Amino acid sequence: MKITEVRLGRISVPLRVPFKTALRTVSSVEDVVVELHTDTGAVGYGEAPPTGVITGDTADAILGAFRDHIGRVLTGRDVDDLENLLKDLNGCIVHNTSAKAAADMALYDLYGQLYGLPVYKLLGGSRKQITTDITISVNDPEEMARDTQNAIDRGYDCLKIKVGKDPARDLERLAAVRAVAGPQRCIRIDANQGWNAKQAVRILDQMQAKGLDIEFVEQPVPAWDIDGLKYVTDHAPVPVLADESVFSDKDALKILQLHAADYLNIKLMKCGGIYNALHIASAAETYGVECMIGCMLEAKISVNAAVELACARQIITKVDLDGPVLCSEDPILGGAVFDEKTITVSDAPGMGIRGIAPGKITYLA
């Protein structure tokens, strides 16, 4: 099975409600889709969201990386040469992790199809079903309370609450959410780098003193501030999950060695795909540190790849893969089944993606 063509396209999927964090506001998913075509007729699918505020990757940058670098490295190569393909993919251009992730998942998709096995079984096959949280965007407390009730009505019992925008109101926001959620539901918060270290400890102390019962806080400080991250980990009454501070296995090892966080968040778009995510997971296993599997604001192709990884590795104990259920429609055919909080991986060969619904993708020349 040889790769004969790299085909690129764009998809646009409206969200149910605008997605708001301390870093950005988004009303639709606008992703680049890659198709790796082969001489056997098999197609491998990948996807990359342009999340410039986090990864630095814009849509034009992702397309340029494929046209000028990644496509040249992959075209004409045998899918069976997976290890060398992945190494060459990672070495053909620096950074550009979202583009690399899209190519990486398409390669794993083809490799699974070649051998007739779903990717999650190729990677370990630990389980077939996982449960995700759902994100509540940062808004006025009253709106967040309404969104919380909507999530509960849809069956969610674990909520990820966005904070870090106007920190003075974060306590009020969380109190409104907890009042609706009740004591029995899990609440985790994500500051998206919105606080400094001492501010984070003060706010988290106040939240716990008011009985808001936070499971953990995600990325309370700027990504570069590892000392600040460790300060929060050492002094806050809430466990800390590192997200934007972890782009690579080297980042993960530094945080693990310093015990600068209690958990790690693995995102394919940050690390460059499944191949590199496996390295992060292995480092976490060595240190006995549990991981979350997360996503950017992505449609189903790329989130599906994260599902495959989550269903393969037991070190991944927390799941934040709500991208597809935040969308108002799903234009992707096949793959995992997203039934609100319950995600069931596909047993079809590869990633199980069969294509994109007619009229939902714009192919690029």
State the total count of DSSP E strands: 17
Low-confidence stretches: none
Separate helix tally: 13
Q: What would you say the CATH architecture of the largest domain is?
A: Alpha-Beta Barrel
| Rg calc | 20 Å
Helix content estimate = 25-40%
CATH class of the largest domain: Alpha Beta
Mean pLDDT equals: 97
The helix/strand class is alpha/beta
Strand content: 15-25%
CATH superfamily of the largest domain: Enolase-like C-terminal domain
Sheet with the most strands?
8 strands, parallel
CATH topology of the largest domain: TIM Barrel
Terminal CA distance reads 24 Å
Number of domains: 2
Q: What is the ordering of alpha helices and beta strands?
A: EEEHHHHEEHEHEHEHEHEHHEHEHEEEEE
Shape call: globular
* Cross-sheet strand order for the largest sheet: 5-6-7-8-9-10-11-12
Give an overview in words.
By secondary structure, the protein is an alpha/beta fold. It folds into two domains: 3-116 and 356-363, Enolase-like, N-terminal domain (Enolase-like, domain 1); 121-355, Alpha-Beta Barrel (TIM Barrel), CATH 3.20.20.120. The chain is 38% helix and 24% strand. The longest helix is centred in the N-terminal third of the chain and has 19 residues, at 97-115. It starts with a strand and ends with a strand. The relative contact order is 0.16. The model has no long low-confidence stretch (mean pLDDT 97).
